Amino acid sequence: MKDNSEKKHAFPNCSIRHILDRFGDKWSILIISILGHVGKQRFNELNQQIGDISQKMLTVTLRSLEADGLVSRKLYPEIPPRVEYELTDLGRSLLPHIEQLALWAEKNMECILANRAKYAQKKVG
Amino acid sequence: MKDNSEKKHAFPNCSIRHILDRFGDKWSILIISILGHVGKQRFNELNQQIGDISQKMLTVTLRSLEADGLVSRKLYPEIPPRVEYELTDLGRSLLPHIEQLALWAEKNMECILANRAKYAQKKVG
DNA sequence: AATAATACTTACCTCGAGGTAACTGGCGAA
DNA sequence: TTCGCCAGTTACCTCGAGGTAAGTATTATT
C-alpha cells in the first residue's frame, strides 16, 4: 500500500497555491491591472502599454484570462480587424486586492531592497 | 540616437512587477502564509507542513526571505542544530493582503475553473 | 563501528515558460 | 504589384527555476 494521498498539506495553502498556479506567471496580473486602470484596450494598445511583452505571450495570456472569464474579448469583423479587451465583473472583483498588494509594494519595496543589500554585504564582509 | 529609455511603462506597473519579481516564485508566499498562521517553525517542520517542497528550495526560499527582511532566522548552536524561522514585522505586514487574495480565490476559484472548462468545450465543440 | 538526528550544501539534470523572427489574411493606398 | 495595417500564429530556441540524490558536520546512542 503506497499511501501517497490525503496528507499533502492541511493548510489554507490550497487557495494560495491556486492563486500562484493561475496568476504567478509573468503577465496575467499586470494585464488585469492595466485593463482595470484604462478600461477597454485593443491588442496593440496593450502591447505598447506593457512595452516589453512579446506578441506571443500577450495572446497566450489574454487567451487564458479569457478562458478563466476574467477578461472579455470583442472582435469587430472589420478590415483591418479590431479587437477590444476588457475586464469582466469577475476580473474587476480581483482588482482591489491586487492594488492592495501594489500599494504595499510601493511602501515597502525600498526597505526590502535595502535589507537585501545589507544582507549581501554581511555575506561578503 | 537610439532612445530605448524612459518610455518603458508609465503605469503603476512598477510596483506590480516588483511584487511578481520577488513573490511570483513557487514557494515564498506559501511560506510567509504558513509562518503567519503557525508562528515560529523549524526547518523540518516547514518541510513537513508543505509536504512537496525539496530541501534545496526550502533553504533557497528561506534565505531570500531572510535577505529581504521578511523572515528571521534564529540558530541555536546545539547538537543536533536547531533553527527557528519566524515572520518579521515587515513580513507580518504583508500577511493580510495575501489572505485577501486567498479569500478571493476560495470564493471564485470554482467559478474560474467552470469558465475554463466551458471555454475548452467551446474550442472542441 | 555504524546509525541517527538536524539543517543544510553540492552536482547534476529536466522541463516548460517565455523570447525571437518570420509568416498569414484581407483590403486599401502608392 | 508591393507595402502597410492589425491581430494574431507557428517553429524554433534559450535559460533558469526547481527537482533529485548524495554528501557534510557534530555528537550521542547502540
UniProtKB/TrEMBL annotation, chains A, B:
GO molecular function: DNA binding
Any Pfam family hit: HxlR
InterPro entries attached to this UniProt entry: HTH_HxlR, WH-like_DNA-bd_sf, WH_DNA-bd_sf
Location of the HTH hxlR-type domain: 14-113
Domain of life: Bacteria
Keywords tagged on the record: DNA-binding, Transcription, Transcription regulation
PANTHER family, alphabetized: TRANSCRIPTIONAL REGULATOR, MARR FAMILY, TRANSCRIPTIONAL REGULATORY PROTEIN
Name this polypeptide is given: Transcriptional regulator
Naturally occurring in which organism (per UniProt): Niastella populi
Lineage: Bacteria, Pseudomonadati, Bacteroidota, Chitinophagia, Chitinophagales
